[in-house]
Amino acid sequence: MEYISTRGNVGKIGFIDAFMMGLGNDGGLLVPNEIPVIPAATLKEWQELSYQELVLAIFSYFTNGEIPDEDLKAMVYASYSTFRDPEVTPVRRINDQLYLLELFHGPTFAFKDIALQFMGQLYTYVAAKQNKKIHILGATSGDTGASAIEGVKGKEGIKICILHPHGKVSKVQELQMTTVKEDNVLNLSVDGNFDDCQRMIKDLFADLDFKASNHLAAINSINFVRILAQTVYYFYAYFQVVKQTDEKQVNFSVPTGNFGDIFAGYLAKRMGLPVGKLILATNENNILERFILEGVYKPGDFRSTYSPSMDIQVASNFERYLYYVLGEDSAQIRKLMDQFKAEGQIVISGEALSKVQAEFGAHGVQGQECLDTIKKYEAENGYLLDPHSACGVAAADKYKNENEITVSLATAHPAKFNEAIELCGIEQQFPEQISSLFEKEQRQTRVGGSLTEVVRELEKFYNAR
Ligand SMILES: *Cc1c(COP(=O)(O)O)cnc(C)c1O
């Protein structure tokens, strides 16, 4: 297995190199040169694996044998040892048609932990093996930052800087990121929104001299390893459901911002997992819903919502999907991405759009519908959804069909987003790990929205001991 860029100008590279490159050096996104298809007999064997064993089985198709088995195994077990549920990502039955895949049992109570705890291990491993300095740089709409910091705080050879949009993350998200006291962590609170933060990160990664001289490494879902780690729970959830129901195929409903998590589901499907529809749930920032329903990919006005981790207009993983839907034609991707830069939109139609609509459903959930969904499931099922998971469930309900099962991804614990829960008139009990955050001291640096200011802070941070 080797890796290439969606824009066609990165030579075939190995797994560790792809991990370290993050964004493709030609500005594209890295993808495997060939997606492995898992034989049905192997899928059957995988049904009996534990979560950790399944990670190892899936990764074995992608790592090129570059990491000795016992090292990979140690990293995988260490990554998930911090999870509060022995199953790592347990599946809960809500009713005959709906199951929830709980992805929030990691240290920072959101699904980002599943990939980022592993990536933290892998960065630490590469730093030690190659005797390298690694400076992780990322943008967060709230959850990635906390999780990535948790994965590498205090680790030898590693520094991490996270940009978050000032005042646009939830209180608990902010506290999780900024109450970490290790000196290898820098939080920049940026005037602007997540798209501004992500654009700056992409600009810095596209400046190859800056990237190389500052040892930059990526944790956002531009990094293929993050996607790969997330494909595992689609397999795991599928196996849990078919064991309980004798169903042959399931749909997945996925609360989406950067198209990262749902792209992992698409990859699982391409690998041969019997997935029916992938239902894409957005909030009012619904560029992806409009793309799927109309074929027009065009950012609208930014809105702050009850589900801030999905307040994203420009979805960086979208390019990966576009690459596959257009038949892996990198020349066309280059043309479309140039056009997007120049004209601010991409339009597809005809056969390509039909293909998109055969694979995906989409529903943009408005604020009131999100809160109503939280209230309804709390009252009728005694299950408290966080506002992101509620978008997924609302979309699953919209596509509900008597004879099908949908697994909706529960991407965060409700305690992270009490702002929305309070609006539902629901009082929740905070887990101790979250309530204790409120007493801790915060450390963050406020910066204006210009790249120059961000670069100045980064240089200060990298030059400090
Ligand atoms: C990041 C995040 C999402 C969106 O995931 P993408 O990979 O950006 O599509 C959804 N829910 C929560 C809680 C998140 O933190």
Outline the structure in words.
By secondary structure, the chain is of the alpha/beta class. It has a domain of 216 residues: Rossmann fold (3-Layer(aba) Sandwich), CATH 3.40.50. The protein is built from 20 helices and 15 strands. It has a 6-stranded mixed beta sheet with strand order 3-4-14-9-10-13, sandwiched between helices. A 5-stranded parallel beta sheet has the order 8-5-6-7-15, sandwiched between helices. α11 links the parallel β9 and β10. The longest helix is centred in the middle third of the chain and has 22 residues. The chain starts with a strand and ends with a helix. 49% of the residues are buried. Pyridoxal-5'-phosphate binds next to α11. The site of pyridoxal-5'-phosphate (PLP) has 16 residues, from α11.
Short description:
The protein has 465 residues and is of the alpha/beta class. It has a domain at 91-107 and 225-423: Rossmann fold. It is built from 20 helices and 15 strands.
Low-confidence stretches: none
Name of the level-1 CATH class of one domain: Alpha Beta
Number of beta-strand segments? 15
Count of discrete alpha- or pi-helical segments spanning 4 or more residues: 20
Can you tell me the CATH topology of one domain? Rossmann fold
CA-CA gap between termini: 38 Å
Bound molecules: pyridoxal-5'-phosphate
Structural classification: alpha/beta
Major sheet attributes: 6 strands, mixed
Instruction: Please report which band the strand proportion falls in: under 5%, 5-15%, 15-25%, 25-35%, 35-45% or over 45%.
Output: 5-15%
Residue-averaged pLDDT: 96
Widest beta sheet: strand line-up: 3-4-14-9-10-13
The CATH architecture of one domain can be named as 3-Layer(aba) Sandwich
Shape: globular
